[in-house]
Amino acid sequence: MRAMYRPVSFFIGLRYTGAKRRNHFISFISLVSMIGLTLGVAVLILVLSVMNGFDRELRQRILGMVPHATLSQYQGDLENWQSLIQDTLEPMASVEGAAPYIHAQGMLTARGEVRGTLVNGIDPQWEPQVSIIQEHMPAGRLENLKPGEFGIILGDILARSLGARLGDKVTLVLPEASISVAGVFPRLKRFTVVGVFKVGAELDASMAYIHIEDAARIKRMGTAVEGVRLKFDNLFNAPYQVRDIARQLGPNYRSSDWTRTHGNLFQAIQLEKKMIGLLLFIIVAVAAFNIVSTLVMVVTDKRSDIAILRTMGASSKTIMRTFMIQGGFIGVVGTLAGTALGVLLALTVTDLVAAIERLFNIQFLSAEVYFISYLPSQLRLEDVVLICGSSLLISLLATLYPAYRAAQTRPAEALRYE
Fold first, then answer.
1. Do 230 and 295 have their domain in common?
2. pTM score, two decimals?
3. Which residue among 24, 218, 261, 407 is least packed, with the fewest CB closer than 10 Å?
4. What string of DSSP letters covers 201-264?
């Protein structure tokens, strides 16, 4: 008998879902519940994919240009950097690359325009081990930086704001004074633009590269460097690993890592992802709880049908399963439709936003304001599975109370006024 009731409850539940009710308001509420669940699931998948995209871009582009960690000395410049890299750092399994650097902050001026800039003195042979700059140069090459020629590679936005192209001259003004018989003057040096890099991030507007020997000359450092940039096999272990290396090298060495320069940005993205996910999950829950009101009205509308089924021998469990199937159908269809829509939007949102920007000649994200200039998206299977599973679970739980009320219907009271 029990085995017979299961297909009966399934058949009746689907029948109630597809039947044209006398009360059209109930059908409207059912449709609204399904659409709300669809939109909630789709938006949740889309937004989490966009946040995943920002997280990916931060790791690959921003943290691909800035060092995972740096090593320098508390007192004086680093003289023996070649032996430090080759004999100490490169043999370490966790170190994927190391390169020397010299930093200089100043202003670049050309064609009457002035921009503040962080100038990095690098060695073109060592730099590709710790940076992705070589992969993002639409004009020129990293090898164009040659010692003594005073070439410079500019970020794309910085070059456009200065009106500088390949072969043009730009002047670097350092915040250091030179004393001569004519008085005190800021230190100036003219450079030739030999390349432009573009990573689609804020670094394009604030960073430039010169040869490390040229940087040593203008800073009067001789053959020394300021420190060594490191790239580790695990980005998140870099802060701990570089501190261990600094302790092994001695008390005169100090370390720094990416969490001090971009850690707040990464943490902000993670926090925003969690908070936005929670808020959108509440939207899904609200849409699912609409199923409760829909089924409660259906139970009220079908009291006489329930009473007839009970008098024909249907058990309370059969009645419960009937309405759970009806509510579950709304949840399953809404969730699957939302998943399909969300996956489609997550895979195409970057191109859609770019097309809208081109069509209306607007820009939603400016690299001068935000850390990237386009809307990224990365769809993750675990997010889709978690969202679908949670939505289906909430939909199932939403059917329990109305189904329980239906199972408690007494045939005599329901048919008294029929």
1. no
2. 0.67
3. 24
4. BGGGGTEEEEEHHHHHHHTT-TT-BSEEEEEES-GGGHHHHHHHHHHHH-TTEEEEEHHHHTHH
